[in-house]
Please model this.
Amino acid sequence: MFPELELVPVNESVLEELVAVAVADTDPNDVTPPLEPGWGDARVTWLRDFHRMNRPGLVNGHQLTEAVRVNGRVSGAIRLESLSPVEVECGIWLARSARGRDLSNGVLSLIIERAIGTGAQRIIAHTTAGNEPAIAALRRAGAVLTSGPDPAVTAVIELIRDVPSEHSADEGADTQPQTASTGRHRSIVLPGGTINYVDTGGPGPVVVLTHGFPTDHLQWHKVVPLLGGSLHHADSPTGRPQNRYEP
Model:
């Protein structure tokens, strides 16, 4: 059975659990800067100060940190750092005893969920060529990997992507009035799967228009012009399509 995973805020009690597991069950260089040989007072002080400093999160600060609980036990931490309004960098460390359970995929899914919640459209991650579980999880999430300088690997996960289609290939498609059939075909990566949709633009609030099987987004192609706005179409991971309209 796959372990139960959750991300939790690093309050003082969680912080003490996090420090204890870090000192007992990690390589200190995986968790803190190389301040001293092994785990000493300098590294422990840095770890406590780092999480306390980032408690405001991305709303009032530049970084968000949370502890990773595996079956109710604190076993690591994640970090999200805002690089721009649409881009975040992520980091993960896990205790040695928590590795080897295919946790990287689950933790990365939780990070993607957190990143989407911040409004991010892109995740940057850094790892090494020898970290096979991280590399596999990043590839599964659709990351583009770039190597160098050895052994560093940089991964970029585009949470919103353009999808090639017969409409996007049309000459002048971006300059023509967009409808339910001529919008830009895109996808968004979510923890439950990738959702495809047609983005026809529009700055207004979203109204959801649904359709059932076996119809698709073209069901609304005559309705959208009457609404005076734009329609979005999405196929959910469960196969139930959705549409949304922006006035």
About this structure: The first strand starts at residue 5 and ends at 9. The CA atoms of residues 212 and 241 lie 7 Å apart. Residues 167-177, 234-247 have pLDDT under 50 and may be disordered.
